[in-house]
Specification:
- The complex is a heterodimer of chains A (about 575) and B (about 70).
- Chain A has 2 domains: about 180 residues, P-loop containing nucleotide triphosphate hydrolases (Rossmann fold); about 350 residues, no CATH class.
- Helices cover about 60% and strands about 5% of the residues of chain A.
- In chain A, strands 2-3-1-4-5-7 form a 6-stranded mixed sheet, with helices on both faces. In chain A, strands 6-8 form a two-stranded antiparallel sheet.
- The mean pLDDT of chain A is about 85.
- Chain B is an all-alpha fold and about 70 residues long.
- Chain B has one domain.
- Chain B is built from 3 helices and no strands.
- The N and C termini of chain B lie far apart (about 30 Å).
- Classes of the chains: A alpha/beta (about 575), B mainly alpha (about 70).
- Chains A and B meet through helix 8 and helix 9 of A and helix 1 and helix 2 of B.
Chain lengths: ~575, ~70
């Protein structure tokens, strides 16, 4: 049995998928978390069921790529049942999509999710009456708490019903009439969202509070994680030293290459995991979209729309899903602009570079330097967006942003979000970074073990003149070249080369190096995603543009920092 | 920057008194308690002390505002 899960953005479809299948799919508290269909299997009373979680959409008019994905699935794959998930707090707007689904003549069940939030706001829904009007079963659920799931499973086994509803006039009016018949709003208490928005969106205090939260996030990421990073660092150092002290080329490869290389990146695992915990808390609580809304004026000034916000936020984790998230942007010019500037948003892979260099050159101002680099990345992304929108991708675009309600983050969701992202880092360490450690070891040990005359030395020295204006030694040039595969490899290369960083680099050169690492070309995985989402032309453009920007900005930073 | 966070908390409380809105006190007390917790973690991790730890004193205020606002 194949079941399509469809509904507006941010109504808890993925949370429901997790509740029904026991899966670990990422949920968010902002519209557009799901941009491609996700599948989850479950056995209900011995019956095998395939649930397909479709991207959140407002209608089936197929303006954006995610609406097209949903519509194509319904028409081409004809599921056996539709689970139409609606936000109980906003029935009228959600019914617009429900009424469009009637045309498909597929059995359907209406799931009134997040009923607890609606009831807290004094909204009472007569589910029985709604069921009679639509001619389909209506189930009340709270997916994140598992409420109503058993009843929903029973109803799924019954197979739902084909909806029978008369559209009077147009769909909007019909939705309004139905909502009036079944929704009763009692005298309501002040809602938490209103209380918090009062302050978080305050025109004077909003931005200082946002900066305070960012500071707390970075302090948590770098300072609180210190004992764990020290512990991992010591463990890998001892192990690498022991293995490489054994005689033989294989031990040298494992000790000086694999353990040292992979260890130099894994040392930053606590920083990355802590950053993801903090980001997950901010995302799931509903604060993140507010923070961006505060920048509303700035965003529109730079030619982006509300829909660009989520991909930009996601970019702090990893640019690959962030580029994919641009699918929800209806306007193609804005979509391309957003995906092109996304690699400037500092993803977690760049964090090891900042921690290493900031720790060496700015030990007392590490956190503020790294926070500034993140802010600098955002600034470059916005300036680039403005240039693209004024020169290459001209045209007006509407600005719509939907603010989700505040929610106390559920620890399971925080764990899933953090683990899925951290797992991605670990997988990279076990594949790309491991592979690169072997490559770098080979380059540094052949044809001679003298690093200066090895392949690595030759290659680095060959390319070094290109970066001569910044004054970087050939080791750094080689690290940049290797880092094109994945940004973590920059640190890995320097570690395998045994580069005495603080001895052969000045503070201004280090600052320029961090800036260059932040901006220079997207990693291979991001590039492949840009190619898939926008085509070859734009992916080549992304490489040339970002490299040019990185080169120019790093040079300017080096000169200014040297003068200061 | 720690001083900046403390200033933000104080100003938020202050604005609440000026505009006579409890929501400001409520949010300021939440930030103060979060900051106190974070500074405790920092103290345990690296031994650096910050006055932010005293943010726990805002806990009764948080409970008081929560009751008044019936959140």
């Amino acid at each position: 049995m194949k079941i399509a899960m469809i509904g507006n953005p941010n109504v808890g479809k993925t949370a429901l998928l997790n509740a029904l299948t026991g899966g670990n799919f990422e949920v968010g508290n902002f519209p557009g978390t799901t941009v491609e269909k996700k599948e989850g299997k479950a056995k209900i009373d011995g019956k095998e069921i395939l649930f397909v979680d479709l991207p959140g959409i407002y209608s089936l008019e197929a303006h954006s790529l995610d609406e097209k994905v949903a519509k194509d699935f319904l028409t081409k794959e004809r599921p056996d049942l539709i689970l139409n998930i609606v936000n109980a707090s906003n029935l009228e707007r959600n019914l617009y999509l429900t009424l469009q689904l009637v045309d498909f003549k597929i059995p359907m069940i209406l799931v009134l999710n997040m009923i607890d939030e609606a009831e807290k706001r004094g909204i009472r829904i007569d589910a029985e009456r709604l069921s009679k009007i639509l001619g389909i079963p209506v189930i009340k659920t709270v997916a994140v708490k598992g409420i109503g799931i058993e009843e929903l499973k029973r109803e799924i086994l019954r197979g739902g019903k084909v909806p029978r509803v008369e559209i009077e006039g147009n769909i909007i009016k019909t939705a309004e009439k139905i909502a009036k018949k079944v929704v009763r709003v009692e005298e309501r208490r002040i809602d938490l969202t209103e209380i918090l928005d009062d302050v978080f969106m305050d025109k004077h205090l909003g931005i200082p509070i946002f900066i305070a939260f960012m500071w707390m996030m970075f302090t948590f990421t770098f300072t609180v994680a210190t004992p764990l990073t020290d512990l991992i660092d010591s463990a890998f150092s001892v192990l690498a030293e022991y293995v490489s002290s054994l005689n033989g080329i294989v031990f040298s490869l494992i000790g000086d290459g694999v353990i040292k290389g992979v260890g130099s990146v894994l040392v930053f695992l606590p920083n990355i995991a802590f950053l993801f915990v903090a980001l997950s808390l901010l995302e799931l609580s509903g604060y993140m979209p507010r923070a961006v809304y505060l920048m509303d004026k700035i965003m529109t000034t730079f030619g982006l729309t509300g829909r660009s916000v989520i991909p930009l936020i996601m970019g702090f984790g990893c640019n690959v899903p962030a580029v994919m998230a641009t699918r929800s942007i209806e306007d193609d010019r804005v979509r391309i602009a957003t995906l092109l500037v996304n690699p400037f948003i500092s993803c977690s892979a760049r964090l090891p570079i900042y921690v290493l260099f900031a720790g060496l050159f700015f030990p007392n101002a590490k956190t503020i330097v790294i926070m500034s680099l993140y802010a600098f990345g955002v600034a470059i992304a916005l300036i680039s967006a403005l240039i693209f929108r004024k020169v290459l991708l001209r045209g007006e675009a509407e600005y719509i942003i939907e603010l989700p309600p505040y929610r106390i983050p559920n620890w399971r969701d925080v764990w899933i979000l953090t683990w899925n992202r951290t797992k991605h880092f670990l997988q990279k360490a076990g594949t790309v970074i491991l592979g690169m450690s072997v490559v770098i070891w080979f380059l540094t040990n052949f044809p001679t073990s003298n690093i200066e005359s090895s392949y690595a030395g030759t290659l680095g020295k060959l390319l070094q003149p290109i970066f001569a204006p910044m004054g970087w030694d050939w080791q750094f040039v080689l690290a940049i070249l290797m880092g094109a595969v994945a940004k973590e490899v920059v640190v890995e290369t320097l570690s395998i080369l045994n580069t005495p960083i603080s001895q052969i680099m000045t503070t201004s050169q280090a600052l320029a190096f961090m800036v260059f690492s932040l901006l220079y070309m997207p990693c291979i995985a991001t590039l492949a995603t840009i190619k898939a989402e926008a085509g070859w032309k734009w992916s080549i453009f992304a490489v040339i543009y970002s490299f040019t920007v990185a080169y120019f900005v790093a040079f300017v930073v080096e000169v200014i920092a040297r003068l200061i | 920057m720690n001083a900046f966070v403390l200033a933000v908390i104080s100003v938020t409380f202050l604005k609440g008194f000026i505009v006579k809105k409890r929501s400001y006190g409520f949010v300021a007390s939440i930030i103060a308690v979060i900051f106190a917790f974070l500074m405790t973690l920092v103290f345990l991790a690296v031994g650096t002390f910050s006055y932010g730890i005293f943010g726990y004193f805002a806990l009764p205020a948080f409970i008081w505002y929560r009751k008044r606002l019936a959140v």
